[in-house]
TrEMBL record:
Keyword NAD among record annotations: no
Protein name: Universal stress protein
Residue ranges that the Swiss-Prot or TrEMBL entry lists as coiled coil: 192-219
Record keywords, A-Z: Coiled coil
SUPFAM superfamilies according to UniProt: Adenine nucleotide alpha hydrolases-like
Gene3D superfamilies: HUPs
Membership in a protein family: Belongs to the universal stress protein A family.
Keyword Coiled coil on entry: yes
Start and end residues of each UspA domain: 4-132, 150-279
Source organism: Halobacterium bonnevillei
Amino acid sequence: MRAVYATDLSDAIETAINSRTCLECLQRYGIEEIELVTVTSPNVTAGVPTGGIGKQTERALDRQRQILEDAGFSVTERAVRGTPHRRINGVAEQVNAALIVVGSRGQSPLEQRYIGSTARNVARTAVRPLLVQRISGRDDHHEVEREHLFERVLYATDFSENAQHAFEQFEYLQTPTQEATLLHVAPPGRRADSETDRVQDAEGRLAELADELEQMGIDATTAVREGEAVEEILAAEAEFDPTTVLMGSRGQSRLRRLLLGSTSEDVIARANANVLVVPPARVP
């Protein structure tokens, strides 16, 4: 399978590319080929692959390509000009990528985390599964937050079709994932006399999904919470300490392609773990 790896050629992104553990996780996911993409200003002449770009940019891109090739990937480097999220998503469509990887540099401490505009815009418009990889630190010191990208997965589901589509990612995650927590957050304010039935139904549905994962060799547990979705997902993240949060996004407008639902966007912005967000299935 092929991934688009977005790079701004910064020290932060190079820290992630230099993490052999992270790269091995991508390989265990099934990634064999990488399109290494950097987007330059529209005012800079750039071609595909690297004709016409500055020598410094070319050297940095070559260096990162070499790191990935030394790790065992087949790599194509691309320097393109334009709006970053449009070009990144466009390349992903062009090469039929199974995954897009975008780094998200957070502030310190973690409670002040934010998501950069490029990562946010890629997430809002991606029609391919997107891994937002956490990179912490400032200035000349950076580190990846979770080197074992998929070792422990927190899967958040509302039992919708989109959430089920996200669950299908475990087909690729069954090799790198050892543990999974399946979480359903029920909205507050329901009638008390229906509470027991509602919880039991959610627990039963989660148990069925857990059984599927157990058959894949993944140790699965379940949790049902009540409250506001984002807050409860983040509370579950703090409790279970996943390396990645897995969830689906919801398309809101065909005219504006697929926009991220507010829950997904808020989790991407505020979680400490990596986030793997899966857009709705494509209509044939």
